[in-house]
């Protein structure tokens, strides 16, 4: 059975700007929002939009990501015909190779797309936080008679030079593409989410493969080639929540925005557009009588005896008596021991913050950073970690890092 549209999800990113958080973890597998991982968002968008066939292209540190995806059951993607398929690079008759770029990754999986003979293919990013109805995007693509459409968001003009920009006419037809220009002609930033007619996608991927000078990238090669040939290209305006969480600061900010859904635009409590995730299997959380919890997200298996304010705690976090956690993102299985103070920081999975240790704090205007403790790190008793420190090794009792 042919599918009207299938999704190809690019999930092989290294996420090097997340430093310790992605040292052994693919960026799409990074925990987010208390009970999710980043990849939960595009997968949930797919099933909520009626897309039941998703190819997930993995490459960097795929073990945890592959294990998490499993057979796709949490997102109702465990299908006999379609469903979710993990697509790592593999050896072919012409030799084996890593995915060289975004376009090359899709090219190496043309045979997967051909199995379903779709009319349309949507290309998604596995490293963004976004709630989007792809069926509305497809409706726009059809109404315009487009061969290629890209989702765009208006960004402040002063930030426009940081993005790939689409210049479009009054009918939303794309007339020019600018990649991070010094003098932007538009403030329509590409979200890196594309819909192609299948025959057009195949044609341009095959031509790109045959070009020895190509970088095999959608932004640098495929889109300019479509413009060169005057293809029917349109910009779809998206006005919902979208954030590239590619840096420590942006990841921390997005987690904090989860706690203020009325103003931030990201509502994880929306029953009409649920974000699905794999269940931790832990018991319910427990908040002791002496604990104080204010405006925070406390998830499965947490045990709280201290003071938690404006923070996101993932499954199995323990905050002992007298400990203070404020403006923090604390990932699964971490222990904050008695009397410790954890503020304005990200603490990765299965870390231990020793008794009366101090981690993070509000940085000065010059510093502008977020303290980060890597996975499995032990911060010793009475240790002090500065507001912008990146901790990737155990810290001894009383030691300081700034």
What can you see in these coordinates?
- Involved in the biosynthesis of ADP-glucose, a building block required for the elongation reactions to produce glycogen. Catalyzes the reaction between ATP and alpha-D-glucose 1-phosphate (G1P) to produce pyrophosphate and ADP-Glc.
- There is one protein chain.
- With 402 residues, the chain is α/β, with parallel strands linked by helices.
- Strands 15, 16, 18, 19, 21, 23, 25, 26, 28, 29 and 30 form an eleven-stranded parallel β-sheet that branches.
- Helix 2 links the parallel strand 4 and strand 5.
- The mean pLDDT is 93.
Detail the topology: elements first, then pairings.
Elements: E1 5-10, E2 31-32, E3 36-37, H1 40-48, E4 53-57, H2 63-69, E5 83-86, H3 102-107, H4 110-116, E6 120-125, E7 128-130, H5 134-143, E8 148-154, E9 164-168, E10 174-179, E11 188-197, H6 198-210, H7 218-228, E12 233-237, E13 242-244, H8 248-258, H9 261-264, E14 286-287, E15 292-294, E16 297-298, E17 303-304, E18 307-309, E19 312-313, E20 318-319, E21 324-330, E22 335-336, E23 341-347, E24 352-353, E25 358-360, E26 371-373, E27 378-379, E28 384-385, E29 390-391, E30 400-401
Parallel strand pairs: 1-4, 1-6, 4-5, 8-12, 14-17, 15-18, 16-19, 17-20, 18-21, 19-21, 20-22, 21-23, 22-24, 23-25, 23-26, 24-27, 25-28, 26-29, 28-30
Antiparallel strand pairs: 2-3, 6-11, 7-13, 8-11, 9-10
């Amino acid at each position: 059975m042919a599918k009207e549209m299938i999704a190809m999800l690019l999930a092989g990113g290294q996420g090097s700007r997340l430093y310790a958080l992605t040292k052994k973890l693919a960026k799409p597998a990074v925990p987010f929002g208390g009970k999710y991982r980043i990849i939960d968002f595009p997968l949930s968008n797919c099933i909520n939009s009626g897309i039941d066939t998703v190819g997930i292209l993995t490459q960097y540190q795929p073990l945890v990501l592959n294990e998490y995806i499993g057979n796709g059951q949490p997102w109702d993607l465990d299908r006999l015909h379609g469903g979710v398929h993990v697509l790592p690079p593999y050896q072919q008759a012409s030799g084996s190779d890593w995915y060289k770029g975004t376009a090359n990754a899709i090219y190496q999986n043309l045979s997967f797309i051909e199995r379903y003979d779709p009319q349309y293919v949507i290309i998604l990013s596995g490293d963004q936080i976004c709630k989007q109805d792809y069926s509305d995007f497809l409706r726009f693509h059809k109404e315009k008679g487009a061969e290629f459409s890209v989702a765009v968001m208006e960004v402040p003009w002063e930030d426009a030079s940081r993005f790939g920009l689409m210049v479009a006419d009054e009918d939303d037809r794309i007339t020019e593409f600018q990649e991070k220009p010094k003098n932007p002609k538009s403030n329509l930033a590409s979200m890196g989410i594309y819909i192609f007619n299948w025959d057009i996608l195949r044609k341009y991927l095959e031509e790109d493969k045959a070009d020895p000078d190509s970088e095999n990238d959608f932004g640098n090669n495929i889109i300019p080639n479509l413009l060169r040939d005057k293809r029917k290209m349109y910009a779809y305006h998206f006005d919902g929540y979208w954030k590239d969480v590619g840096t420590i600061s942006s990841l921390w900010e997005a987690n904090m925005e989860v706690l203020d859904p009325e103003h931030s635009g990201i509502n994880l409590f929306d029953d009409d557009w649920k974000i699905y995730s794999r269940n931790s299997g832990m018991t319910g959380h427990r908040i002791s009588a002496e604990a104080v919890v204010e405006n925070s997200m406390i998830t499965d298996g947490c045990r709280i005896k201290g003071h938690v304010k404006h923070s996101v705690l993932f499954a199995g976090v323990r905050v002992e008596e007298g400990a203070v956690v404020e403006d923090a993102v604390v990932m699964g299985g971490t222990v904050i021991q008695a009397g410790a103070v954890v503020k304005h920081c990200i603490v990765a999975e299965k870390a231990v913050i020793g008794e009366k240790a101090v981690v993070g704090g509000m940085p000065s205007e010059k510093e502008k950073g977020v303290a980060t403790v890597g996975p499995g790190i032990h911060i010793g008793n009475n240790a002090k970690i500065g507001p912008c420190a990146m901790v990737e090794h155990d810290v001894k009792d009383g030691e300081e890092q700034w």
